[in-house]
Records
---
Amino acid sequence: MTAGLAAALERYEAVIGIEVHCQVRTATKMFCACAADADPDEGAPNSRTCPVCLGLPGALPVINRRAVEHVLATGLAIGATVPSATRWDRKNYFYPDLPKGYQISQLDLPLASHGSLTFDTSAGERTIGIRRAHLEEDTARLIHATDPDGRKVSLLDFDRSGMPLMEIVTEPDVRTAEEARRYAEELQRLLRYIGVSDADMERGQMRVEANVSIRPRGTEPFGTRVEVKNMNSFRSVERAIEFEIERQAAAIDAGETIRQVTRGWDDDRGITYVMRSKEDSEDYRYFPEPDLPPLRVDAAWLAEIAAGLPELPAARRARYAGTLGLSAYDAGVLTATRETSDYFDAALAVAAAATPGTAAGGTAAGGTAADPVVSPKALANWITGELTRLVNAAAGADRGRIDRSGIAPADLVALVRLVESGEISGTSAKEALAEAFESRRPPADIVADRGMRRISDADAIGAVVSDVVAANPAAVADYRAGKEQAVGFLVGQVMKRTGGRADAALARTVLRAHLDADGSQGG
Ligand code: ADP
Ligand code: MG
Ligand code: ZN
C-alpha cells in the first residue's frame, strides 16, 4: 500500500461492488449446437459458427439446458433464491461484435438472486451479498490489426459469439481492495468446486469488473461510482482498486467532482484511464425475448441439482478447522482446490477405516474418527508440505495437482503410519515419498526395498555400538574422564553407521551400558 493510499484511507472509506462474467462450462453454445471450447479464441477463427450464433435473420435459438443447470447450481451454492419461472430479455444495442443488434440476457427475473459468499481475509471472515446471477450470451471477438499492405483492419471471430456467460453481481458490500480480490478468488474456487466454470482469468473465462466509489469515513451516502475494467489477474483487481481509491481521494481533495465513467486498467503502467463516459448511459430498450418461451424451474429439477452439489469450500474449511481441529491456515491450504481437499478427505477416510473400532463408524464426509496413529494433523502436514512441494515442481498439466502425483491417498496414509509409529525416520519417509513420486511406486515398497525401517533391535544396535567404541578410542577415553558430551558424539557415530536408522534413544542406552560394563571390567 502506498503512503498516499494509506493517507486517503484515514479519511475515506471505499464502497465497492463486483461484477463477474464467467464462461459456463458446456459442450455447446448457449442457443445453438456449435462447440463451446474452453478457449474459443484458440485454433482457426470462425470455425465454430452457424446461422444462430452468426446472428442471421430467421435463425431461432434453443436453450442450453446444461448452462441453465450450472447457473442454478451456482445459485444454490451461494444460498440464492431461484424463481419458479424465469424469462429471457433482449438487450438491444449496436456494435460490430453483435451483428443481430441484441444480446439475449435476463433483466428482471435472473435465475438466482439474493445470495452471499463468505470468505477469509487478513482482517477476519467476511460475507458479501450477491445481488443476482443470470445467464446471457457472449459477443463475437473484434480484433484490430494491420494487414500486409499496412492498412488498419478490423476482423471478427465468431467462435466466441453465443458462448454461455453467467454474470454475477454483488451488493455494494465490499470495502477494501483486498476484500475484492479475496471475493473474486473465493468465487473462482466455488465455481471450480461445483464444476460450473474453469474460471481462468488469464484465459478470459472469468472477467472481473469493479465499481468503486469513496465516501468520508463515518458518513452513509454513497459517492459516485467509477467502473473499472480490463483486469486480468487477481493481483490486478487489487492493484486497480487501490489505485482508483487513491485517485478518487486526490480528485475530491482537489475540489473535483467524480463523474460516472468506465475506466480501464493498464497493468504495465499501474494506472486506470478513461475508456468511456457513462453519462450518456445507453438505453438498451429491453423487452421480453419473443423467440424463447419463459423457462420454468420445477422443484424436482432444482432438488436434483442440489443433490449433485459437492460439499462446498466454506463447509470444508469449517469442518477441517472445527471437527478436525486444524488451524485456519491449514484448512485454507487444504481447501484451496477441490482436488487437494478431495485427496485429504480420501486419506482421512482410509486412516479412519483402518482404525479398530471405527471402521463401521461415520467416515462418510472425509471421516472424523480419530486414528490413534495417523492424525488429521499429520496427514495435513504431509499433504501441504512434502507432497505439495513435489507436485509444485512437476511439469505441465500435472503441476500442482496432488491428485495426479501418482501417490494414492491410501499409500500416503501407509507411509505416514510408518513415520508416526516410529518405524521409519521422517528423513527416510521424505526420501521414500520423493522416489515414489518419480517412480510411481508405492512409498511403502520403497521403504522395504531400501531397508529404511528403524533398527530398534538391541542386539543389532549392540553390534554397531561395539564397532563404534572400537573405532573411537579418544572419545571413549573422554567419556571415562567424565566428559558427558562424548556420549552424544558416539551416538552420532552409531546413527551415521546405520544411515540414521538406529533408534537413537535405544542406541544411547546400549552405548552407556557397553561403556560402563567395559569400564568396570578394565578398572
Ligand atoms: P448497472 O445497472 O449500471 O450495472 P447496478 O446498480 O446494477 O448498475 O450496479 C452495478 C454494481 O455496482 C453492483 O455490483 C453494485 O453493487 C455496485 N454499485 C452500485 N452503486 C455503487 C456505488 N455508489 N459505489 C460502488 N459500487 C456501487
Ligand atoms: Mg451491470
Ligand atoms: Zn452456432
Note: Residues 15-19, 169-172, 211-213, 222, 225 surround adenosine-5'-diphosphate (ligand 1) (CB under 6 Å).
---
Amino acid sequence: MAQNQPIFILAEGSQRTTGRDAQRNNIAAAKLVAETVRTTLGPKGMDKMIVDSVGDIIVTNDGVTILEEMQIEHPAAKMIVEVAKTQEAQVGDGTTTAVIIAGELLKNAENLLDKDIHPTVIAKGYRLAAERAQKVLNEIAESVTEKSEDVLKKVAITAMTGKGAEAAKEHLANLAVKAVKQVVEREEGKLVVNTDDIKIEKREGKGTDESELIQGIAIDKERVHSGMPKVVKGAKILLLDVALEVKTTETDAKIQINDPTQMQAFLDQEERMLKEIAQKVIATGANVVICQKGIDDVVQYYLAKEGIYAVRRVKKSDMDKLARATSARIVSNIKEIAKADLGSAGTVEEEHIGDEQWTFVKDCKNPKAVTLIVTGGTKHVVDEVERAVKDAIGDVSAAVKDGKVVAGAGASEVELSKRIREFANSLSGREQLAVQAFADAMEIIPRTLAENAGLDPIDMLTELKSQHDKKVKWAGLDVFKGKTVDAWKAGVIEPLKIKTQAIKSAAEVAELILRIDDVIAGSTDGKGPAMPPHGSGMGPDMM
Ligand code: ADP
Ligand code: MG
C-alpha cells in the first residue's frame, strides 16, 4: 500500500482554503468592501468616480451604485454587496450604512477570534444582539403619520443631504413628500406605498430647482397623426392593449386575386373594417386614445378627423401607471369597449423634451400614479439628482408605511450601542463578549461621520456618549459645527426601517461569513481557479 501517496478529491486546478485562513481571507475581503464606501458616508462624505469598461463615467456617493459598478469578484465580498442590494430593494436608502456595519461586525469578530473565542459563539452572540437591536430601535423610535408633513419633509431632506441634489433639496423634498402622499393608499387598515407608482423622468439642460411633479404620467411618445390636436382639455381617455388594426393573414392563407376589381373589393373590405373599428372607438366618447399596440393609418385618419388625440406602442408599465393615474380600465377587446372604461385627465398635451416629443397626461383628479420630472444641467448631475430623489422617496415611503422614524447623525446608533451594552451586562460567559463587540460596532456610524467631516472621532464619540448617559436620546453629531446636537430638533430624521434593515442584514451576513471555515473553488475551465487573488496569511498555493 502506497501510504504516502497524496489523495486528490478535487479536480485539477481547484483551490481550497480551510479553517482560520478561510475565515481571515473572507473577513479581510468584507472589510475591504466596507473600507471602500466608508469615505462616502454622511453629508460630508466624498464622491467616487467610476469609469466603466466602455469609458462611461459615473460620479456618485451612493453605496449600492458604487459596489454594483465595481464588479467585485471575491465571494465573501460579493456577499457584502448583496447586503447593499437588499437594503436598496427593501428601503431604497442606507446602503452605505449597512455595508459599514457589516464590515465593523466582522472586524470586531476577528478580534474575538484572536482571543480564541469560537466562531459559533460569536455568531450566537451577534444573533442575540441583533434581535435586541430590533427591539430597542422600535422602542426608541418616534411615531409619524402621512399627515406629519413637516417631519416627512425633514426625512426627505436628510436623505438628500450631501448628495447631488443639495442645491435644490428644499424644493425636491417638497416634491418627494407630495408624490408619496399622492400615491399612498390604505389597504386593510395599513398604509401602502408602491414606489413604482412614482415615475421618475430625467431632463437635462435645466436647473435642478425646475424639477416638477406632474399629477399624472409623462410618456415618451408623440401623437400618431399631425392632424390630431396638440392639446386636449377635459380629456376622456381610452386605454387599449389591443391593436387598432385589421388582423393581417397570420396563417399562410393566401388570397387569390385575379382581376383589378377583386383587388379593389378586397381593399374596400379592409377599409370598411378599419372604419368600423374607428367608429367603435369614437362611439365611446373618448377624445384621447392610448394604445399599447399599433394603430392603422386608416384608423388614425378617422380618429384625427374626430379631433381625437392618439398615441401608440406605449410600454406596458406605462399603461398600468396610466390606468392608476386616470382611473381608466385597460381594454383588451375592441368589441367590448364601453364608456365606463374611460379615464380622465385635466389635460393631455404634446410637449418637447429635448429634441423628442412627449405626451403629458396631467392634472388628473386624485391620481394614484404620478411623474416626477427631475432636471439638472448635465447628464451626470441629473443622474446623481435622480439617485438622491429616489433615496428621498424611499425614505419618505418607509416612514409613512411603518409610521416610525428615528433621529440620524449617529444618534440612534449611539443610543443603540448603549442599550445593547446594558443588555450584555445581563449575560454571562463568552457570549457576553460577542454582544459587547456588537454594541461597539454600532459606534462605527458616528465615528465615520466624524472622520468624514474632518473631526476627531474619539473626542466626538466621548462627547456623544456622555450626552446619551445624560439621557439625551437623540444626541447626534453636527458635522458642520463639529459638536453634538439634538439631531431630532436639528431635523436630521430617518425612517426606522433604514436602521432595522441595515442591522438585520449586516448581522446576518456577518454570521454567515463567520460560519464558513472552508472555501472550495472549482477551476474555471483552464482560466485558473476562481479564488480571490489576495488573501491574508497562508494562501492555498502554499498548502
Ligand atoms: P447611506 O448610503 O447609508 O444612506 P449616506 O451617505 O446617505 O449613506 O449617509 C447617511 C448617514 O448620514 C446617516 O447616518 C445619517 O444620519 C447621516 N446624516 C444625514 N444628514 C445628516 C446631517 N445633516 N447631519 C449629520 N448626519 C447626517
Ligand atoms: Mg442615504
Note: The chain is about 45% helix and 15% strand.
